[in-house]
Specification:
Number of strands: 5
Structural class: alpha+beta
Radius of gyration: 17 Å
Strand content: 15-25%
Strand order of the largest sheet: 2-3-1-4-5
Largest sheet: 5 strands, mixed
Shape: globular
Distance between the termini: 37 Å
Number of domains: 1
Helix content: 25-40%
Length: 190
């Protein structure tokens, strides 16, 4: 069963700025970065010839507010439903941005079972379909906390480690060159 989840609307552009995306959407992002800004790796001094030091694209992300999600929703899609409610009036803006931006939703669920099964009901599928954008989904096992994984601000549990890993994977993906069809190219072999 999905016991917690995280949903994010992501917009990536080679041509628009993150500020311009905010203006079209009429929303402030949870996080954003402009083309030409130093990458997170560069900020931490981790640069190499095969890793660009500046961002090739602008990125704009809106996370569903987990605290506002319905605690009674036991479907495993609490934050995805909340995100859809936040952007339900933005279909025209999303359609405009799709013309020259990569627009998608990422959803990560944390399961208390190795099988990680879930069910998308008709209403949720219909609402997702209205957006006309890709949905990238992952289900991870909410495993036991491991010693040494906790920080002062963030207790260690499987979901926390999974979110950290997912956020790092998204950051890497946003730095990859794009093949023009909206699919990031594979990273170079090391």
């Amino acid at each position: 069963m999905i016991v917690s989840d995280l949903a994010t609307l992501s917009i990536v552009s080679e041509h628009r700025t993150a500020r311009a995306i905010s203006e079209v959407m009429g929303l402030e992002p949870t996080r954003s970065a402009e083309r030409g800004e130093p990458t997170r790796s560069a900020v931490h001094g981790n640069t190499s010839p095969d890793r660009p030091a500046t961002r090739a694209v602008a990125s704009w992300s809106l996370d569903a507010d987990e605290k506002a999600a319905d605690p009674e929703d036991e479907t495993g899609f609490r934050t995805l439903r909340l995100l859809l409610n936040q952007i339900s009036t933005k279909t025209a803006q999303i359609a405009e941005l799709k013309l020259d931006c990569d627009v998608s939703i990422t959803w990560t669920g944390s399961s208390d079972s190795w099988q990680g099964g879930f069910v998308l009901d008709e209403d949720l599928l219909r609402d997702l379909g209205r957006l006309g954008i890709a949905i990238w989904g992952t289900v991870l096992l909410d495993d036991e906390a491991e010693e040494g994984d906790e920080t002062e601000d963030e207790p260690a549990d499987g979901w926390t480690r999974s979110r950290r890993g997912f956020a790092e994977a998204v950051e890497v993906a946003l730095q990859l060159p794009n093949d023009g069809a909206g699919t990031p190219d594979a990273p170079p072999a090391r």
